[in-house]
Design goal:
Number of strands: 21
CATH class of the largest domain: Alpha Beta
Structural class: alpha+beta
Number of helices: 15
Shape: elongated
Largest sheet: 9 strands, mixed
Radius of gyration: 29 Å
C-alpha cells in the first residue's frame, strides 16, 4: 500500500467528496474539439471577419487565480497553453466556487465556451461549461505552488535532479516543455532518416530481435531461453548479418531502424538498449558510403534544426559536405607520436604505448591496442565532422582488406564532437575469407567473450550462394539526436533509459 503525504490525503478526500456529489473524477469520455493552438489560430482568423469561435478544450491545469465573482486558469495540452475565464454570469456562483474548491493544479479539465481576447490582449476561452477529466492526487515531483502578487497561483517546475528526471520521465515531460521538444525532434530525426533513404531507393525491412546466434558487432549479448524450442536465444547486438543475407536474395538496398541490445557498461554515450540505423548497398564501397553518409546527416540536420550548422556545447558543428577525411594511422601518429606501422605485433606496440606512460590491458590484441590509441589520443580531437578511415583487420572481422594490404581493411568511422557517430565497411563477401576470420576471432578472443564472434554457419551458407560486393553502414540514432538537441548525455534523449531498480518502502 502506498503511503500518502498530507497534500495527497487532501486530494484523496476531494475524490471521495466528488463521488459523493455524483461527480466521477475519472470519466470515460472527453469531447475536445480543438487543441489550444487550433483554437487560437481559429480565433485569429475569425477576428478578421468578425466571426465567433466556439471550442471545447482539454488540458492540465498549470495556474489558477480566484478573484471573487471571476476566476482564471491556464491549461496546457500537447500543443501549448491557453487561458480559461470563469464568471458567475454564465456559470453561477456555486459552479465557480466548485471550480475553486475542487480543482487543483495538475488536474485535467475539459472546458467549453467562446473564444475572446482580454483587455491585456490574451486570447482566452470564456467558459460556459466545464468538467473534471482526471484528478491529480500527487503533485508533480519537486514542484511548488507560488502565489504571486496578483493572487495567481503558479506551479513552478523544479525537477532538476538528473536521475529523478530519467526515472520519472512522465513527470519530467509534464513540467518541462523543452523536454517534450527533445522527443519531438527525436521523432523528426527518425522521419528524416527514413525520408532520405526511401528517396535513394532503399527498402525498409525488419529482421529478428531474438536470434539463435549473435554477431555483427563486438559486444556481449543478453541471453534468454525459448521454452518451446528448448534453446538459448540472444537479443541482437546488430542487424548486420541478417541484412546482408537479404543482399544474397537480390534486395540491393536495404535498411532497418530499430533496437539493438548490448550487455555492457552505461555511460554518457552508452545505454544497453539503443536505436540503430543500418543500411547495406549492393555494388557500392566504403568511399561511396562516405558520400551518402555526409549527405544524409546534413539532410537530417537541416530538416530537424533548420540549418546545417548546429550548436553543441561550446562548438558550432558544420554538417555541410564534404567532411574532413583522415587516415587512422596518420591521425594516431599526429596525436600520440606513435606510428602503428612501426609496430607489427601486439607486444611491440604495447611496449611503445607504455613508453608514453599509458598502460592498456596487456592481453589486448594489436587491433585492440590501436583502438586504445584512437580513443585515448585521437578521438577527443575530432570535433567537426570527420571520417576516420582504414582500420586494422583484427578489429574489423566483416570488412574487406585493402588491395595489397591484408592487415588493413576498408572501414571508416564518422566522428563528431569527440565521439563516434557511425561505422561503415566495404563488406567482406568472400565466404572462405569470412570463415577464416570467424576462426581467427574465436581463437584470438577465446578468453574474452565480449569480443568473440561465434561461427555463424547459416550466414556462411548464404554467402556461398554468392553475395554481391557491397557497402554497409551503422549509426547510433540516439547519438545523432544528442548532437541535434545539444544534449551531452544519452539519458536525456531516451524516454526511459536503463537505471538500477528503485527501492520502494514496503509495509
Amino acid at each position: 500500500m502506498a503511503e500518502y503525504n498530507s497534500l495527497e490525503k487532501i486530494r484523496l478526500q476531494k475524490v471521495e467528496e466528488l463521488r459523493a456529489e455524483g461527480v466521477e473524477p475519472y470519466p470515460t469520455r472527453a469531447e475536445r474539439t480543438h487543441t489550444s493552438a487550433e483554437a487560437i489560430a481559429a480565433f485569429e482568423a475569425a477576428e478578421k471577419t468578425g466571426g465567433e469561435v466556439k471550442a471545447t478544450l482539454a488540458g492540465r491545469i498549470r495556474a489558477t487565480r480566484a478573484m471573487g465573482k471571476i476566476s482564471f486558469a491556464h491549461i496546457e495540452d500537447g500543443a501549448g497553453k491557453i487561458q480559461l475565464f470563469f464568471r458567475i454570469n454564465e456559470l453561477t456562483q456555486p459552479r465557480v466556487d466548485f471550480f475553486n474548491r475542487m480543482f487543483d493544479i495538475g488536474d485535467f479539465i475539459q472546458a467549453s465556451g467562446a473564444m475572446f481576447r482580454t483587455k491585456t490582449g490574451e486570447i482566452t476561452l470564456h467558459v460556459h461549461d466545464f468538467k473534471l477529466l482526471a484528478k491529480s492526487i500527487s503533485p508533480l515531483p519537486a514542484d511548488k505552488d507560488v502565489t504571486q502578487q496578483d493572487g495567481t497561483i503558479v506551479r513552478f517546475a523544479a525537477l532538476e535532479d538528473a536521475e529523478l528526471r530519467a526515472r520519472q520521465r512522465y513527470a519530467d515531460l509534464a513540467v518541462n516543455p523543452e523536454v517534450r521538444e527533445i522527443f519531438r525532434k527525436r521523432a523528426a530525426v527518425l522521419k528524416s532518416l527514413r525520408d532520405f533513404l526511401d528517396g535513394k531507393g532503399f527498402l525498409e525491412v525488419e529482421t529478428p530481435i531474438l536470434q539463435p546466434l549473435y554477431g555483427g558487432a563486438a559486444a556481449r549479448p543478453f541471453t534468454t531461453h525459448h521454452n518451446e524450442l528448448d534453446q538459448d536465444m540472444y537479443l541482437r547486438i546488430s542487424f548486420e548479418l541478417y541484412l546482408k543475407r537479404l543482399l544474397v536474395g537480390n534486395l540491393e538496398r536495404v535498411y532497418e531502424i530499430g533496437r539493438d541490445f548490448r550487455n555492457e557498461g552505461v555511460s554518457y554515450k552508452h545505454n544497453p538498449e539503443f536505436t540503430q540505423l543500418e543500411f547495406y548497398w549492393a555494388y557500392a564501397d566504403y568511399l561511396q558510403v562516405m558520400e551518402l553518409t555526409e549527405q544524409m546527416v546534413c539532410y537530417v540536420a537541416e530538416q530537424v534544426t533548420g540549418s546545417t550548422r548546429v550548436k553543441y556545447g561550446e562548438h558550432e558543428l558544420d554538417f555541410k559536405p564534404p567532411w574532413k577525411r583522415l587516415e587512422m594511422r596518420v591521425g594516431i601518429k599526429e596525436t600520440s607520436g606513435i606510428d602503428i606501422a612501426d609496430y607489427p605485433t601486439a607486444k611491440s606496440l604495447l611496449k611503445a604505448i607504455g613508453a608514453k606512460g599509458k598502460y592498456p590491458d596487456p592481453r589486448f590484441t594489436r587491433g585492440k591496442l590501436i583502438d586504445f590509441l584512437l580513443s585515448e589520443y585521437l578521438e577527443p580531437t575530432l570535433i567537426q565532422p570527420t571520417f576516420l578511415y582504414n582500420y586494422p583487420r583484427d578489429i574489423s572481422p566483416l570488412a574487406k582488406s585493402m588491395p595489397g594490404d591484408p592487415l588493413t581493411v576498408e572501414r571508416f568511422e564518422g566522428y563528431i564532437a569527440g565521439f563516434e557517430l557511425c561505422n561503415a565497411f566495404t563488406e567482406l563477401n568472400d565466404p572462405l575469407d569470412q570463415e577464416q576470420r570467424f576462426l581467427e576471432m574465436g581463437r584470438d578472443y577465446e578468453a574474452d567473450d565480449e569480443e568473440k564472434h561465434p561461427m555463424d554457419e547459416d550466414y556462411l551458407r548464404a554467402m556461398r550462394y554468392g553475395m554481391p560486393p557491397n557497402g554497409g553502414f551503422g549509426m547510433g540514432v540516439d547519438r545523432l539526436t544528442m548532437l541535434l538537441t545539444n544534449k551531452h548525455s544519452i539519458r536525456e534523449v531516451l524516454l526511459f533509459p536503463a537505471l538500477k531498480n528503485e527501492v520502494f518502502d514496503k509495509e
